[in-house]
Amino acid sequence: MASGTLDFPSVSFQLLFISMTLLLGFMMVVGDSRNWFGDHYGKFDCNQEFDSDSSKNGTFTSPNYPKPYRDDTRCVFIFHGKGRERVQILFTDFDLYMPNEEIKDCEGPVDTVMVFITIKGHQERLNNYCGTNLPRQLMSNGPSMTVEFKSHQLQSSPNVKDFGITAGRQDSEQVCGFIFNSTEHTNGTFTSPNYPGIYPRATECHYFFYGRSSERIHLTFAYFDVEGVPPCTTETASDYVEFSNFRTVDRKIPRHCGLKKPKIIESDGDFFRVAFKSNDKFDGTGFEAFYQFRNYVDPITVRRTAGAESCHPLFLQLLSCAVFWLML
Hints:
Blueprint: E1 10-18, E2 23-31, H1 35-39, E3 48-51, E4 73-80, E5 86-93, E6 112-119, E7 122-129, E8 138-139, E9 144-151, E10 169-170, E11 177-181, E12 187-191, E13 204-210, E14 215-225, E15 240-244, E16 265-266, E17 271-277, E18 286-295, H2 299-310, H3 321-327
Parallel strand pairs: 3-4, 11-13
Antiparallel strand pairs: 1-2, 1-5, 4-9, 5-8, 6-7, 6-9, 10-11, 12-18, 13-17, 14-16, 14-18, 15-17
């Protein structure tokens, strides 16, 4: 890249599905990003899914190729073969933006292409690729492969103390803690740090929900992308979201990670805590969830009330259930 000029690198690579008789080829191209490009376009979905039943060859590219891709972008390309087919990637051009040439193993705030394969039912990262060196040809161990492209935000931003979380009231006793009280808002949304951008590594945030004694907290997730493999332990180097009815760990509610959204969650009482924790290895775009404080109605009380009402036919309104049963 020449000094004093805006030279936009680009990247391309070719992906192939191979079996004894079938060949499925794709080419992916990735280019450099600059802020002006992101400013002119809104959010978009660049994810793609390819099936060998639909096509045996073709190409796929980064957004806007051969022009610059936008910053703060994440694209996932999923390839499905069948039977004995294998996925093969042939890189034909590769030139990603590198803010610091001293970055090693393509870790940190750097634009990357990541390749994943499936081992024993779990997705494992095959390798990371960044910079301008053309990667060697790759092949999957089975009929599927996932390619993920991520670009980071380049523009300078002011220092933030709220981790990019705009909902709730920041807890002064926590490094990254936020309080949601039903006396202030009965519903709303909350997100992971820096959402919808990539959440920071080695970060822990807590979300505390305080309802009235008659209320319970309901959580519904609209989006979920937290890097990890269930059961989301440190052994699998997983980031995770944890739920608890206490300020400590609640072992009856499992941790959540991966791409599958948690089911609707309801607290046992008028307090609930959500914890988000990332390690220093992988990245994701995090989560967005909707919270609501709802009045709690004891189902046992409802059944008793319904049973009592059923014991009062119109022609015996003045008699109690007990008397009515004795008469029978």
